[in-house]
Amino acid sequence: MKAPGSYQELAELLRSRLPKLAGGQLRIAHLLLADPEGTAYRGIAEAARLLEVRESSVTRFANSLGLPGYPDIMELCRAWVAEQAQVARRTEHAGDVESPGGLLSATLEQEQTNLARTFGQLDRPAWLRGVELLAGAPRVHVIGLRECRSVADLATQRLREILPAVHQIGAGSLPDELTELCEDEVLLAISVRRYAADTVRVAGYARETGLPVVALTDNPASPLAEAAEVALYAETSGVSHSRSLTALTALTQALVTEVALRLGDPKPDQRLLDTLHFYY
Fold this sequence. Notes:
By secondary structure, the chain is an alpha/beta fold.
């Protein structure tokens, strides 16, 4: 097996293995996916203590990925952190935003990377299952709060154009809104780090109630992924400390467009579909 040569390759390998992992191995994978910044400078003793596993378990996990040991994982994370810092410095020192290497160039480069990774790593069976759930639901509930509210608004507006009943959660009293969830319906939950607590709670409640959850989030370690029947991931790295929602928004638009196509919409957004089909 070829060892990952970058954090991006490491993350892709971990995502592919998540369904087969359990116990301590699953906790290790979740930590590496959710906190590459911390992993870059967290020694093996501290990591083992945090994960409640033996240091030897952490070493064996690194070996299973084709790496000599845990320090090699730290090195991949450090290189990724350095790359992110370089993009941030380039942005901070941009005098003329239209100059090469300025803010516009850095933003364009980052967004292109986010979009390519989002659609390039899309899990096709999960994607098709998400489309099937949304297209076949008698009613779809949508929740996205805080910075993801605008994406949820977009999803709600577009879904209302093609589905018989769409309810957006978050406008009223949450306990009252939860009483509207019924077992044969579907919840579309949208959140990225730092995950909105109410969105996570609603997703957990929906799962307990028997509603399939389709989650649009940023990471397999996201708490939404635990509650979801289908989880789709968008890259959210930005040129500053703020997260970018460009790829998440594009993923949302693509999902709604695919649902429309499944339902026989005669005028789907063909350019968006062409882009999506190119990647997967």
